[in-house]
Design a protein that fits this description.
The complex is a heterodimer. By secondary structure, chain A is of the alpha+beta class. Helix content of chain A is 42%, strand content 16%. Chain A has 25 helices and 26 strands. In chain A, the strands form seven sheets. Chain A has a seven-stranded mixed sheet, sandwiched between helices. In chain A, α7 runs antiparallel to α8. The relative contact order of chain A is 0.09. Chain B is of the alpha+beta class. In chain B, 36% of the residues lie in helices and 28% in strands. In chain B, the strands form four sheets. In chain B, strands 1, 2, 3, 4, 5 and 6 form a six-stranded mixed sheet that branches. Classes of the chains: A alpha+beta, B alpha+beta. Chains A and B meet through α1, α14, α19, α21 and α24 of A and α8 and α11 of B.
Amino acid sequence: MRTNLSHVSLLLLAIGLAVVALAQEKTDDKTAVAELPVEAQTLLEREPFDRVYLDERNKSLVLEVFALALPGGRVPEKPAPGEKLRLRLVSEPQHEYEIDWVHVVRVEVYADIVLAEANRLTTAKNLDAAYLYFAFLLKNYPNTRQLPTSLDNYLYVDVGELFKKQRFDEALAIVEELYGRRPNYQFAANSPGLMEILRNIVDKILARYIETENNFADARTLMQRIRTTYGDQQQEVLDKWNKALEVLASADRDEARAHVAAGRGREAHAAVRRMLNILPTLAGGQQLAAEIAQKFPTIMIGVTQPAVTIDPRRIDNWAARRTGRMAQRMLVEFAGQGTEGGQYVCPLGTFELSDDSKQLTFRLSSAAREDLPHLTGYEFTQRLLDLADPNHPDYRAAWARLVDRISVADVQTVIVDLRFPHILPEAYLQSFIEPAPHDVSGNMPGDGLYALNRRMGQELIFQRNTRYPADDAARRVQIVEQYFTDSQQAVGALKRGDVDVLDRLFPADVQRLRDDPNLAVDSYQMPTVHLLIPNPRTEHLDNRTFRRALAYGLNRNVILDQLLLGGHKLPGCRVISGPFPPGVDSNDLLAYAYDERLKPRPYEPRLAMTLTVLAEEQVSAAAQKQGRPPPERPTLVLAHSAGDVPRIACQSIVQQLKAVNIQCSLKELPPGITDDPQADYDLLYVELAMWEPLVDAGRLLAPDGIAKINSPYVNLALRRLDAAKSWAEARRRLQELHAIAHHDVVVIPLWQTVDYFARNKNLHGVGSHPIALYENLSQWQNTPAGPSK
Amino acid sequence: MSQTLLPSNDNFCRTGFQARPSQCHWKIQRFRTSEDTTTKRKAITTLVLIFALCVLLPRPSVAQETEAWEYSPYRVHVWLATQPTPQLTSRLEQQIRQYILWQAEIVEGSAWRVDVESAPQPWHDELLAGFQFVSLPENVEDTHPLLRGDKLILLRIVEQAGEFLIQARELDCRSRIFGPPVTLATQQIAAIPSAAFTAVASAFMPLARIEKVNDREKTAQVRVRAAGLVLSPNSPAAMGTGEILRPVVRQNDRLGKLRAGGIQVVPWTFLRATDQRGPNLGCMVYSGLRSPLGGRGSRRVEKFALAVRPTATTTILQLNSSGAAPHPLSGYEVYSRRVDTENSELLGRTDWRGQLLVDRGDQPLRILYVKSGTRLLARLPMVPGLEPLQTAPMFDDDIRLGAEGSISSLQNNFLDLVARRQVLATRIRLSIEERDFAEAERLIEELRGLATRIEFTQFLNEETRNLASDNQREQQNIDELINDIRRLLVNQLDPQLVNDLDKELRAARTGGGGFGS
């Protein structure tokens, strides 16, 4: 500690040096700006001038003069004898000259000079430059003679050039503009007319949509618009592509029929959805879709994070938790926020904590045992013992420390005696009922309502678990999770009706989807906390001054408000100062761990740069002490899971860190993976379901937790938290943890988001503000409906 | 079988007579095999005479003692207990005995004098039940049956789960210390005698006497027992460089008898032999104590060092709080260092039971460091695998650690504040230099908005109000840490800075010079 303080003194000296270095850097920047070469002025940048052409008696001189004050703004056709033109030469602005009009052959005003230059550029196919001239004239000299004709010619030439470059979308926009200006425009006698050009362009665009991109929705939209705007004039090309769509859709329809006949429900669904996507109006298509929906009831879930593992315990993996809720039961499950911590239920029965908080009694219900006939009170006890066994994979040290004795009173009653009173012992029991975890690639069904049936391409198909009693209708229902690589595709699929539910909307899409009358948008009950976890594999990341520099160098408000929320406000979405959720509003009981007195670190890039220099000093000094050369500042690797929110946030974080001289590169993890087992990163972006900070604090911050924090102060605070005997003490300990995490920047807190999902209104029973998407799965009802309008 | 004669043989050796090992062995054999009562009577008479001579003759000189130490062989008794099963017959037991004696002669004929007998009751049954049931009562006389000779090796052979377990454990009679158990297993009956000898040889821990100690240089010199008789470096009785020894202090009364509680294994202390000169070994002393072997040895205080040969692969390190009501210390960091390097590595943290499993590395001796935050609490030399569990009591550092964490947070705040002030001051001066007075004024206001020295002092007082310890020394430590920050406050958060910058701005505005004008 003494050494640390002397270190502080040295650092204070170093601050001065660091700030001087920054000031020098700033001065150098200014010098660099001042030395930039001045660009040559173009015609548009010059002060407006006219040209006066003199007769041969004046050696045919061409004078560049300041704008002339012409009578009526025009050159007089027959100037009166002796009438003089007064002018100032651009080269001699201090003198005014007079010239007899008789010696003036021609006057070229500035607008004409600019137009001539625009025409020259058009002829030279320098169209981008020409555009600037035309835009200038339209804005400043809209009444210039010959401007409309020149502009039409420019547009025509531009269409031709864009077509050659296969930029058909732009060509279509320009030819339609030209058509709107002059429907009968003809560039030259033998040049093609506008309708012929339009036909060629539309043909090319439809070919790309239909044959290359499989973007049938946009193809249909374009065809409809062309038909409405140009009617019979474009019938030929429209017929051609309509027929092509029919051929494609018919193939899928026939395939769907074959699947129906063979009893292949999922394949039939896929084929009919493809068919409807290509051509919803195909003869017999709607009937076939209805028939398939009735025969093979399927609920399609669009997801942007696929489930690679199925594990309801994972607080750092949304998809694992989502599917885990459906496929795997736990000894106790989180049921909602209570007045003091979470509320938990035991799917196998009921439980209660004694008044002195030293005994937990489970009563297994016979109904639960009917669902899971293999489980007895003895096996339940064994699971509780497993959690206290250091050699068992599900070992939880906090539970082992807490539990003193477990006894079975009868087959239905299990009594757990605790070593000391605990406020929420059941929270430690969020672990599998069955010891063998359900694996996404395995065939062994879990003990949830649904079980994974198979993976088909980008889809995970779940079917009713055969271990549960159900009627035939319920047993036939499939839940299919379809993975979309980006949110826009997923939203498109939802709007088209390809999926019934879209899980976890991109925040900026929430408002847009709320406006859709066919969709219902709802939020989840519990928010998500987003953090950056530093990996102390390098001395820099192990240095808390450097970690503070990172925190000061991030403009988290801009990323959240502008990039993720798209400028909209969503309740509960806010920047945070620690690893715990502040709750959705001031009355949210979830906020029990969050200390509002600790404000999020502001965006202070200069302070970030200063602290970075300081951190370098510290790291170098430590290396010198050990006789090593000072380590170079590494290029940080920022790892993040696949998905639009982490991707966009991390791209922005990289840019912001570069602005404070911290180089950083991105590493996107494979879809569905939220951590790198090799820990080959310096920063890891995580999204946490921190629903019970009392126990989740350890799952995040313990040395064997997600963040693998080795700070002795954090460790001590966690131990004190585990020993808390009252809620008041637990809150105090959690707020201590918040403070330590904030000051030591053991994790870099980013923001809290409230997550939303959208569903087709035909799907009922999902519930309002559920904890997880599949929380009420047994009550879901999907009214068969046709595809999107 | 003449088991009753064996104690006589023991007495024979204890007198210091230097019988040749082979002779001794021959005598043992002869006693065992002869049924000639005349011979017996002669032997008894001889022994009685020798005993009388021992009592009447003056005590041997130091030189004589040294000579006896180096040149008299270990008297090793092996007590054998075999489980009565159809396969472990008395004939097999006899074969085992004979094999051990035969092998002992071959492997180390000089430095050992071994006899093997069936363990007498009640130890036989205790031994069969398990080593943990064989114990040595405190303060027993040196004549206790377990303490005959130099070494007693308990050997048990039992059948378990379809195989035979051969287990041996040594009791060093001088230090009264049990060594670690050695276990071998075989499924073949024919292999049992060989395994039994291997177990006995492995359980044997050679002994040395600590002669000189240099506390300042942390060195010691030991003299190896029977060093003059050891013929092969592979002998179980041999000690050489690299050997790890555990020091034991034995306090005797004036008659040479062990005083009550007179045996003390020096805790957390090991010697590592670094050089060998004849019977002497030069050793480095590794200890968690300041002066572990302080003071010279004497007749009343004997210092021994037992070679350690761990047989297990792990030891559980248990950290408990010191004091009247010890409790486990969990979350304490334990680092490990090899004896030949300066760098240590984090082994782990003690769990909620205060325990950490320490694996045997590539070197037998490791130096463990227990840390709490930035504070080193203990230095614990350890030979993992030697004991199943080792408990180290130490100060419960949690209150001080909590205070250190809080003060560390304050340091961070303080550094950020100083850096922020300096950054603003630099920007203000640059703005004045560029004659951007409005910006300079805005930044001065921003600087005024930062915490002042008084405000930070109040914040410091508030944050440290609860950092209290019942322990006076701890409270002093905490107070010192807080006072250090207070001193820094005085030097760094100079309230004059804002006024100076304001003056510079005014001077620049009026063209009266100042920074950058």
